């Protein structure tokens, strides 16, 4: 079986490694990640929450990352406040039906977001209308705004305090880098908050 699919498997893994290496070599992106991590830590320490949202595979990543905060990532600790705006089917279908799919996340942010919270919009294309409108609504309410996207981020820059743009064009490779970036940011938050708690314990 490996003879039949071996080249495809190896090529896909190498492609993923190249995408991650491009992230590693992008000093601007690494600096933005560090700044985002600092803002997430600050927000969580002050009792604010993280709001994640996206479509399709990015919706799954939003749920994945929110779960890492409410549950745990690597360290046993108290839960941290994070929500995925992709899980309430009644809200999703009701808002989509009554206000249009493009308002799916903006409406929830208007209801649930508060100044000092962090809105994290994930879109591999960089053009998803509901993610753009979600970040716009978050900016208007005074939330910290973070976009996780690919190379094309022109539609998001106006509404994003931080734009973490993976230097790749392939949707699967961008998604793989998004979850890597999300895990790194989660790890930093967890270590910083736990070390702070231990120092004050």
Structure description:
The protein starts with a helix and ends with a helix. The longest helix is centred in the last third of the chain and has 29 residues. It has seven helices and five strands; from the N terminus they run ααβαβααβαββα. The protein has a single domain, classed as Rossmann fold (3-Layer(aba) Sandwich). With 201 residues, the protein is an alpha/beta fold. 40% of the residues are buried. Helix 2 crosses helix 7, helix 3 packs parallel to helix 7 and helix 5 runs parallel beside helix 6. It is 59% helix and 12% strand.
Helix and strand layout, with pairings?
Layout: H1 2-25, H2 27-45, E1 50-54, H3 57-70, E2 82-84, H4 89-99, H5 104-112, E3 118-123, H6 129-141, E4 144-149, E5 162-165, H7 171-199
Parallel strand pairs: 1-2, 1-3, 3-4, 4-5
Count of spatially separate domains: 1
Q: What is the share of helical residues?
A: 55-70%
Q: Which spans of ≥5 residues are poorly predicted at pLDDT below 50?
A: none
Mean pLDDT: 95
Per CATH, the architecture is: 3-Layer(aba) Sandwich
* CATH homology superfamily: Glucose-6-phosphate isomerase like protein, domain 1
CATH structural class: Alpha Beta
Q: First CA to last CA: what distance?
A: 56 Å
The class by helix and strand makeup works out as alpha/beta
| Radius of gyration of CA atoms, rounded to a whole number | 17 Å
